[in-house]
Amino acid sequence: MASRTLSCRIGAGLSGAPWTRAAAGEAARGAGSGLGARPDLAFLFLSADHREAAAEAIEEVRDELRPRHLLGCVASGVVACGREVESGPAVGVWAAELPEAEVEPFHAVALGADAGVSVAGFPETEDASVVAFLVDPYTFPAAPFLDRLNDERPGLPVVGGLAVGGERGESALIVDDEIVDEGGVGAVVSGTPVLTLVSQGCRPFGREAVITAAEGNVVHELAGEPAFDRLRDDIAALPPAERALVTRGLLAGLVIDENRADYGLGDFLMRGLLGADEETGAIAIGAPVRVGQTLRFHVRDAASADEDLRRTLAEGLIGRRPAGALLFTCNGRGSDLFGAPDHDARLVSEALGGPALAGFFCGGEIGPVGGKSFLHGFTATLAVFLER
Predict the structure, then answer these.
(1) N or C: which terminal CB in the chain sees fewer CB atoms within 10 Å?
(2) Which of 336, 363, 313, 161 is nearest to 248 (CA)?
């Protein structure tokens, strides 16, 4: 008799009630309404209004769903069920039945005088479907840790974000029944198909160029000419209407995986342009660079961000059956960027074919580009759980 392969089932719920216990119960019931069994993994996302009563929210989710593992955080805004609550009270709950999967929760902390020296508590796994990672930005060095992780465990897909729910010392990260105020919490999920997507919200202009002289994060030459001259010429070639975009968001896109014949938007890691020196011809960007790396300039605006997210979802989900997703979107997106609420959550929910979506607004988003996981800004990153 052939063995039966079980598919995952995912639900999500959202409540804007001002009373924490009532809001958590309402959101949990919404998440559990489409499930047939006890969830293997649940996430609880709280707005800052509910920070003081986070323990009550955990109890309520436990009572309603009895999840085997529970993760979560307090954040500046909550995403769930196709909606984005950027201010005011909100509770989002996401719950998943993951048959045949293994879920390993963890709490990682930085050690030593220099927070980047050592990290304890992060699992030793090298083979995972996804690592969901929620980080306190005040006590955990996410960017240097991810750089080291890329070297030590190449290809490990990490998706998540920096949870900024208040000032330093006001963080609240949830791992099972515990609330912690430092480090990062997460779960290693193995044995179930998960698609990771990163939408950096940019579009290219000008010409691709190989870095021919550089030091640290300073690019001296592109394709044998001063980098500043190359940038100036690329900007000058833009139509006047597009030239104005450069003043609002100019970025350098760095190719991470050079083993391709052509590069698309998903192959570039976006980093901000920090400065330019017309006299020396150098430009400084927000990441170390190396000679031989390909660079292309990009701009970011609402239209580019909308187009890139639509493209990322359409291309990533071709031939796949999504069951639900976790969404980590930048707190610089939302209505501030798009001029209207719910943009990212609505597009993702439409692409999923349902509201089984939750997440939060981040102070930095984590996701893979070119096979390596990085800390981003102004992006939307996704962990899409797929039906088998």
Answers:
(1) N
(2) 336
Mean pLDDT of the chain: 92
Counting Cβ atoms within 10 Å, is residue 104 exposed (0-12), middle (13-18) or buried (19+)? Answer: middle
The one-letter amino acid at 53: A
- Reading phi first (left if > 0) and then psi (alpha if -120 to 50, else beta), residue 353 is in left
What per-residue confidence (pLDDT) applies to 249? Answer: 73
DSSP 279-328: TTTEEEESS---TT-EEEEEEE-HHHHHHHHHHHHHHHTTT--EEEEEEE
Query: 130-154, pLDDT tens digit by residue?
Result: 999 999 999 999 999 999 999 999 9
2 occurs within a structural domain: no
Residues 366 and 380: their CA atoms lie apart, in Å, by 9
pLDDT at 106: 98
Q: Are residues 256 and 312 located together in one domain of the fold?
A: no
Tell me the mean pLDDT in the region 358-387. 95
**Strand, helix or coil at 355?**
coil
Cα 12–Cα 16–Cα 19 angle in degrees, nearest 5: 110
d(CA 376, CA 271): 8
- Same domain for 257 and 357, yes or no, is no
Does residue 3 lie in a domain region? Answer: no
**Phi, psi dihedrals of residue 58, rounded to the nearest 5°:** -60, -45
DSSP 8: P
Q: Are residues 153 and 207 in the same domain?
A: no
Radius of gyration of the chain (CA): 21
Task: Give dist(CA 376, CA 258) in Å, integer.
Answer: 20
Q: Where does the pLDDT of residue 261 fall: very low under 50, low under 70, confident under 90, or very high at 90 and above?
A: low
110 to each of 76, 145, 169, 362, how far by Cα in Å? 23, 9, 15, 20
178 CB neighbour count, 10 Å cutoff: 13
Q: What's the CA angle centered on 157, arms 153 and 161, to 5 degrees?
A: 115
Band of pLDDT at residue 1, cut at 50, 70 and 90: very low
Q: What 3-state DSSP class applies to 13?
A: strand
Q: In terms of residue numbers, what domain contains 109?
A: 9-199+306-386
265 plus 324 within the same structural domain: no
Give Cα 158 distance to the centre of its chain.
9
Name the helix (H) or strand (E) containing 14: strand 9-15
Q: What is the domain count for the chain?
A: 2
